[in-house]
């Protein structure tokens, strides 16, 4: 008997008896993005083995997915624009709701946001989510500017405010979509604009505060805030929670706080999805379904500090995080959140060059 | 120069075939993509060759290719400026690297035999710690209120005067540090065979030390300088990770520009054309240099007398300074492995807890073991093939396609790693090779062998072939001659080449993350993914243990190893 027929025989057996399919799940995700024991529990409960590989950016994921035949069964890509623009290319397989009975545990308002990016089908379930806003060192900011507008984009986009924190250290993301998009929101303009003139206003805004910014980087601010080397950082909510925890663990005598800017902001989702050419779709479904169990989703939320999209898990999430409206914002607040839209390649390039000009390298 | 007689011409076959399979074919894929157009497709470019349509399909495909991307490169000044800026940064960094490496390598060769091996091992040893960890240590040194800033304040400078993090200086320091072994090892390899009787003669004839250096030592060490600069300068141009971590990201180095086009915009065609452009721009001057080099090749005596070597105080100072520079971040990594805090850059008391945490972290240990195995196996394969390539280039005077071969040995060094990575990825997808350890091994061996070839070539140039001739005259077979005569003479070059290939493989991030598959996450990939949330001190603990293990192995081999001395030439 060949391995193939053996495996399909197993699948048939599994389908008949209703037990889960035994095999291998090749998982591709961020480092430590699941609860420490969750993967082991999944293995014990379903008999599948999990191979957990890590990536360092959504760009690496996109490259591998576009090259085809990545060999992975479950991946955690960013929803929009990444996954959203890969779905029409048939890069991701349709999920089978019948095999995901735990789907009902997810937050319906967040699911609606996911549908916004995946209107034609059902290719992903949300795993973690969050906002892009401003984190700050409470003690240092208070000492420099007692009435600092910490709940506003002014912290990084208003030259008068930013100038005050120059020496203390300001960090801004190095990402055209995130920074120019947020700047457009601050200016009250369309955050997905394809109008070069509108976009240029965001470029001008960033150019004016650029002299006060120490670094443009996608992740260094976590360690920078936690160590007290930075005062203000534009970044992702989940990362800010990590920075807060790190500062506490280190016994530093300051608090890192994160605020969702009142002018509005961008929102992001990391999803669980199955590549269209995944070798083991059955086990992949079993994995995704398992991760939607309340206690499993909650352990990941507690260990990483990221906000879970699993409503049934909320009761098990640390009250200190869950009670903070900056990490778990109310439905009312969520109305102001904007999910970046997929842009054409031409518009993407225009944004990229605009971002170069904003950083002063062009 | 040697005659063909001593070297079997057939050795050319192995490196030639290897480079054709794992460089030429992937490169042709890149060339094809550079003539395509970006598209929202999978893979993200058009046209795609439709094999079902036969000849007609091929013709449609061929006519759809164009030079549009090259036109963009030439008309849009941004890419060229970005390239020039990178050349400038790499040139400055190379000069500084040479400035530190030359006196140090020279000092090492002056040390007594007993100490020389130990010192050389000490130079290479820190580079067995993943370079991401070393760069992270530099962040702790260069940040505001970091090590350097504190020392500056202690000396009476204002706070922040030496807070160099996120500046161009930090990028240069990081690059110089990371590429130091690429300069020291080829230099050592060449300076080591310098004939002391020439120096003595020069001195006896009344030349000053400076004069002796300029007219004897420097010209004789040119092959080493040439190889070192080549091996450091070229990869520096496309460097991405160091500027990303230490710079402020407001300078458009070509590595970053390429990264943006390739990863952010998923514009593979434009990225491919930038890579081809870089190859063309760099290759011509390098080939010209190589020709000049071959002409200037000086015949050197083979009986190197090392008896008269003295380790002057100047040599001592150079070696100590170099080692200090190399070990400063290493010591910080070791100290912070005992840090009670989770933060890698802030001290909060002594603790051993990270060693406990480390042994719980099987994922990290498995990745470290994978990277070690991979580096060991691929460096060994790269050394075998690389030595063959170097022998071919230096010893076989002419054969069909020698020019092409010389080009092939250099090209993988010149093409930026993300493009090489993409080329490999496309090749492996095309031949349906499951990705994992095997694909990592093939990719690492390919770029490793080029570095080995360049290092060994430097040692072989000016090699005295009369010994080999004598050997064959006395009836030794070619193989005997190689193992008894040639190999011992080029051994320092071979070992240096192996060490470089090991470091390259062990530290590779970008190519690996592209060509790997399920179940094969290398250490740098895991660390870089972890860096998003900040490195934890268990990584420092792992590094400390690795250094300790290496030190123990080193001392055991030096202590109990065969007593060498006189037979070393």
Q: Could you characterize what this model shows?
A:
The complex is a heterodimer of chains A (362) and B (569). Chain A has 17 helices and eleven strands. Chain A is globular and about 60 Å long. In chain A, helix 9 (176-186) packs across helix 10 (196-209) and helix 10 packs parallel to helix 17. Chain A folds into two domains: 3-129 and 269-328, Periplasmic binding protein-like II (D-Maltodextrin-Binding Protein, domain 2), CATH 3.40.190; 131-267 and 339-359, 3-Layer(aba) Sandwich (D-Maltodextrin-Binding Protein, domain 2). In chain A, the strands form two sheets. In chain A, strands 4, 5, 6, 7, 8, 9, 10 and 11 form an eight-stranded mixed beta sheet that branches. Chain A has 362 residues and is an alpha/beta fold. In chain A, helix 2 (38-46) links the parallel strand 1 (24-29) and strand 2. The longest helix of chain A has 15 residues, at 3-17. Chain B has one domain (4-34, 67-560): MetI-like (MetI-like fold). Chain B has a two-stranded antiparallel sheet. In chain B, a hairpin with a 6-residue loop joins strand 1 (37-38) and strand 2 (45-46). In chain B, helix 8 packs across helix 20, helix 8 (168-191) packs antiparallel against helix 22 (478-507) and helix 13 (254-264) packs antiparallel against helix 14. Chain B is globular, with a radius of gyration of 25 Å. Residues 298-303 and 562-569 of chain B have low confidence and may be disordered. At the A-B interface, strand 2, helix 3, strand 6, helix 11 and helix 12 of A face helix 13, helix 19 and helix 24 of B.
Short overview:
The complex is a heterodimer of chains A (362) and B (569). Chain A has 362 residues and is of the alpha/beta class.
Q: Summarize the largest interface: chains and residue counts.
A: A-B, 66 and 61 residues
Main sheet makeup of chain B: 2 strands, antiparallel
What is the beta-strand fraction of chain B? under 5%
Low-confidence stretches of chain A: 1-21
Mean pLDDT of chain A: 91
């Amino acid at each position: 008997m060949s391995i193939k027929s053996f495996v399909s025989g197993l699948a048939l057996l599994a389908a008949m008896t209703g037990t889960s399919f035994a095999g291998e799940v090749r998982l591709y995700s961020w480092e430590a993005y699941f609860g420490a024991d969750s993967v082991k529990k999944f293995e014990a409960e379903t008999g599948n083995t999990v191979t957990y590989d890590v990536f360092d950016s959504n760009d690496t994921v996109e490259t591998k997915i576009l090259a085809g035949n990545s060999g992975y069964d479950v991946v955690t890509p960013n929803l929009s624009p990444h996954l959203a623009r890969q779905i029409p290319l048939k890069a991701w397989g349709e999920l089978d709701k019948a095999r995901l009975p735990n789907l009902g545990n997810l937050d319906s308002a967040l699911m609606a946001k996911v549908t916004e990016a995946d209107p034609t089908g059902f290719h992903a379930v949300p795993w973690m989510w969050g906002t892009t806003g401003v984190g700050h060192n409470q003690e240092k900011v208070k000492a420099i500017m007692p009435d600092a507008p910490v709940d506003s984009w002014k912290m990084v986009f208003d030259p008068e405010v930013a100038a005050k924190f120059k020496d203390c250290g300001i960090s801004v993301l190095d990402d055209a979509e995130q920074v120019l998009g947020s700047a457009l929101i601050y200016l009250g303009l369309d955050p997905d604009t394809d109008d070069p003139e509108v976009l240029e206003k965001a470029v001008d805004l960033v150019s004016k505060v650029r002299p006060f910014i120490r670094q443009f980087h996608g992740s260094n601010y976590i360690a920078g805030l936690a160590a007290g080397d930075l005062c203000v950082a534009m970044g992702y909510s989940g990362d800010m929670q990590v920075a807060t925890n790190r500062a506490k663990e280190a016994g530093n005598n300051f608090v890192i706080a994160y605020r969702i800017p009142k002018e509005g902001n961008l929102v992001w989702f990391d999803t669980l999805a199955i590549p269209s050419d995944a070798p083991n779709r059955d086990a992949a479904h079993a994995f995704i379904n398992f991760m939607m169990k309340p206690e499993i989703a909650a352990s990941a939320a507690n260990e990483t500090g990221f906000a879970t999209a699993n409503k049934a898990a909320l009761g098990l999430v640390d009250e200190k995080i869950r009670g903070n409206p900056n990490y778990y914002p109310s439905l009312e607040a969520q109305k102001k959140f904007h999910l970046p839209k997929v842009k054409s390649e031409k518009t993407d390039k225009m944004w990229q060059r605009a971002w170069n000009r904003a950083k002063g390298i062009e | 120069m040697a005659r063909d007689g001593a070297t079997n011409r057939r050795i050319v076959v192995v490196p030639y075939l290897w480079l054709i399979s794992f460089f030429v074919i992937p490169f042709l894929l890149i060339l094809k993509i550079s003539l395509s157009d970006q598209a929202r497709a999978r893979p993200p470019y058009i046209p795609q060759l439709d094999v079902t349509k036969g000849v007609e399909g091929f013709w449609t495909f061929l006519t759809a290719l164009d030079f549009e991307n090259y036109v963009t490169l030439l008309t849009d000044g941004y890419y060229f400026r970005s390239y020039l800026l990178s050349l400038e940064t790499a040139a400055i960094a190379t000069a500084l690297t040479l400035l530190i490496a030359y006196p140090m390598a020279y000092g090492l060769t002056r040390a007594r035999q007993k100490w020389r091996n130990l010192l050389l091992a000490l130079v290479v040893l820190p580079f067995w710690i993943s370079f991401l960890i070393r760069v992270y240590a530099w962040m702790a040194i260069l940040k505001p209120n970091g090590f350097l800033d504190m020392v500056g304040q202690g000396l009476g400078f204002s706070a922040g005067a030496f807070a160099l993090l996120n500046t161009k200086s930090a990028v240069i320091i990081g690059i110089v540090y990371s590429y130091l072994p690429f300069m020291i090892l080829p230099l050592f390899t060449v300076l080591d065979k310098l004939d002391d009787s020439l120096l003595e003669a020069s001195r006896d004839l009344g030349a000053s030390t400076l004069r002796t250096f300029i007219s004897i030592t420097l010209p004789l060490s040119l092959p080493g300088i040439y190889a070192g600069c080549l091996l450091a300068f070229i990869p520096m141009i496309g460097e991405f990770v160091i500027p990303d971590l230490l710079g402020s990201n407001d300078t458009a180095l070509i590595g970053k520009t390429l990264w943006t086009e390739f990863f952010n915009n998923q514009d593979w065609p434009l990225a491919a054309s930038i890579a081809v452009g870089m190859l063309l721009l760099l290759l011509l001057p390098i080939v010209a240099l190589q020709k000049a080099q071959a002409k200037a090749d000086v015949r050197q005596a083979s009986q190197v007398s090392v008896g008269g070597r003295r380790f002057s105080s100047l040599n001592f100072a150079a070696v100590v300074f170099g080692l200090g520079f190399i070990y400063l971040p290493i010591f910080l990594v070791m100290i912070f492995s005992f840090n009670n805090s989770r933060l890698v850059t802030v001290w909060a008391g002594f603790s051993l807890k990270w060693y406990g945490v480390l042994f719980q972290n099987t994922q990290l240990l498995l990745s470290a073991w994978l990277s070690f195995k991979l580096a060991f196996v691929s460096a060994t394969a790269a050394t075998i093939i690389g030595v063959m390539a170097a022998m071919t280039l230096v010893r076989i005077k002419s054969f069909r396609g020698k020019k092409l071969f010389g080009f092939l040995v250099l090209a993988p060094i010149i093409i930026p790693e993300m493009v090489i990575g993409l080329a490999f990825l496309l090749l492996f997808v095309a031949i349906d090779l499951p990705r994992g350890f095997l694909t990592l091994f093939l990719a690492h061996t390919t770029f490793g062998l080029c570095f080995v070839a360049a290092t060994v070539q430097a040692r072989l140039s000016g090699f005295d072939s009369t010994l080999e001739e004598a050997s064959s005259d006395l009836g030794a077979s070619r193989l005997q001659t190689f193992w008894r005569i040639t190999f011992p003479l080029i051994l320092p070059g071979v070992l240096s080449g192996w060490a470089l290939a090991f470091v390259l493989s062990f530290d590779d991030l970008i190519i690996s993350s592209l060509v790997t598959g399920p179940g094969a996450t290398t250490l740098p990939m895991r660390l870089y993914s972890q860096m998003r949330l900040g490195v934890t001190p268990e990584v420092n603990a792992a590094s400390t243990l690795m250094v300790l293990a290496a030190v123990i192995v080193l001392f055991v081999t030096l202590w109990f190893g065969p007593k060498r001395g006189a037979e070393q030439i």
